[in-house]
Amino acid sequence: MKKVYDFLAKRQYLSFPMIIFVIFFALFELQKLSAKTFEGKVNGIVSLAGVFIGVLLTVFTLYTSIPKNNQIMQRVIKFGHHQIFRKSILYGCMFFMICVFLWLFGASEKWILIFLLMGMSDVIISIKYIYLINEYV
What we know:
The chain is mainly α. It is 81% helix and 0% strand. The chain is built from 6 helices and no strands. The chain has helices at residues 2-10, 12-29, 42-65, 71-78, 81-104, 109-136. Helix 3 runs antiparallel to helix 5. The longest helix has 28 residues, at 109-136. The chain is globular and about 50 Å long.
């Protein structure tokens, strides 16, 4: 069980969005959640995706402004947490961009919402990391 936890924790930028993908895809397929609920709200969902891209870029800017020569940041870099943080920003922006492109090409509301939620999980991971880093620096 420890190995599974370590695997998921080290790849949380991708594992948590995939868990959300599986859960919401199953909810849509089992008819527990309907895409018709979101029919008139697609423009709002896509604009929310654009806002979250800006949030992720702002969080990355905060990270780059932190001095890397102190003891806390050296430990963050030593244990690879900076890679998890960077990849969560990258994957979050990627999921939000997929959300916008799906909207541009007229895809189903189901897919737009799923990719928005996947990106939001990476936003949560990024905010958690920037909070923890700023708390100790």
